Amino acid sequence: MTPRLERRSAQRFPIERALRLRSFNRKGIQQTGQGRTINMSSTGILFATDQQLIPGRRVEVTVSWPAQLNQTCGLQFVARGRVVRVEPGKAALEILQHEFRTARADRFRETSSR
């Protein structure tokens, strides 16, 4: 068996966090949903979701970030990009834009699923 050639340009990190997603078509928001990240890199996110996403579709995901600003204010990682791969229960997003935002205390809490 020959070794598998790694084609990814960025290292992936196994980060499991809650996420919300919004997918867009030309008329605006088409669907919303939730999921969990499986792994992340500087160029992409693999996540679990029960949404039926379409390759090429524009998506925005908001991830509950584990670090806090000044140890007091929660953060969210917001990434916009396009769906590059779908599998049953999973999708991969190519990140085209990203930013960190402060999280309102009442909006998006990470809950442990373990």
Helix content: under 10%
SSE string, helix = H, strand = E?
Answer: EEEEEE
Can you tell me the residue ranges where pLDDT is under 50 for at least 5 consecutive residues?
none
Gross CATH architecture: Beta Barrel
What's the shape?
Answer: globular
Measured by DSSP, the beta-strand proportion falls in: over 45%
**N- to C-terminal separation?**
36 Å
Structural class: mainly beta
CATH topology label: Thrombin, subunit H
- Report the CATH C-level class: Mainly Beta
Radius of gyration, CA atoms, in whole angstroms: 15 Å
Overall average pLDDT:
86
Q: How many strands in all?
A: 6
Q: Largest sheet, order of strands side by side?
A: 1-2-3-6-5-4
Specify the number of helices.
0
Can you summarize the main beta sheet?
6 strands, antiparallel, barrel
